[in-house]
Amino acid sequence: MNIRSMKNSTTNNSGVTVAVIGAGAAGLLAAYTAAQAGAQVLLFESKEKIGRKIMITGKGRCNVTNNCDRDTFLSNVPQNPRFLYSALDAFSVQDTMDFFETLGVPLKTERGNRVFPQSDRSVDIVDALYRAIHRAGVVLKHATVTGIEQDENGAVCGVRTESRTYRASRVIVATGGKSYPLTGSTGDGYRFAEETGHTVTPLRPSLIPLTCRGTDCPRMQGLSLKNVTLTIFENNKKLHEGFGEMLFTHFGISGPLVLSASAHMRRWDKASYRAEIDLKPALDRPTLDKRLLSDFAEKQNADFRNALSALLPRKMIPIVVAHSGIDPHTKVNSITKKQRSRLVTVIKQFPLEITGMRPIEEAIVTSGGVSVKQVSPKTMQSKKAAGLYFAGELLDVDAYTGGFNLQIAWSTGYLAGLHAATDEE
Predict the structure, then answer these.
(1) DSSP per-residue letters across 135-165
(2) Which of the residue ranges 9-18, 21-30, 105-114, 319-328 would you say has the lowest mean pLDDT?
(3) pTM to 2 decimal places
């Protein structure tokens, strides 16, 4: 079933009151879906504006989803992918694209099957959702929910705010994770889950910059590398490799390549990590050596430190020179084959010792969350508290970068909203 046919669906509980906590991606779609299915919907948001995290996704362009088939999608979900089968069947990638196109937001598919608004403006997605929930009759309340009310049997019966209690026979918790707390993702949803008897698996950051040992990164702060290969090693065994862009910072490394790599690094308590950067992935070692010989021939009387400007970014040259072990004042016409070989190794395998991740507040998504063993994958309803539903990043499901995490929010939000509105008591 998709959202466009929902008006014709059976609404067994037409008039049921559904409280949705959190006006992010999952909460907005849950609220809209429940209202379209006939429920009276109260949507609670602590911030003045809705969809604040949507606004910053995709560098402000909003990577709405990933235009791929289900199997490819699930291969990009390292944490509990099987839990998402029903959600993706109920509200697929194509349903998401059709939904926003129907709301008047033309979309486009870019490299890596990433889907964006044609306007490259995330605000267009948020505005479309705001208009949609308004037309559907969702009542938006800017208030902070402090707790969930339960009756003597443990079924939910309302939500508490700082000023009053609202009665509701169904509650959908879609408060997001602990990343980007300024957008409203403060982790309250985990507390609500634990207070209603649910297990919250250990939380850690994912899709996040990495910290590195030493002074190399601070010295190259602000330098952006394009078309490089980043390889991550876990206990000296190759874990992940990616091609693209990255950035040096005062604490370590960031950028698309690094964020993607961080999602694979899940054993910080048991493993050590290091990285290698291939600065010239298009050149194999023999070809790179020939390139060096050619560059050196043009500057044969120059100091080594002044002979790499055609090959490497200016900020990186003194760092690479230091790693090569070649005296920077050596004339290039006297550099030996063995020294060139060491230089080629540095350029093809520039080393970084990774010491950790940045704080979870800086993560794009939170890994860990409400145990999926305690949530029905077909309805998103809790198995421990009747009438309670979970959706989005709050669940112990997370994916790699590329629009997958937003699609998880749309799909689980849809399923929670539909069943909260239509399931029998």
Answers:
(1) HHT-EEE---EEEEEE-TTS-EEEEEESS-E
(2) 9-18
(3) 0.84
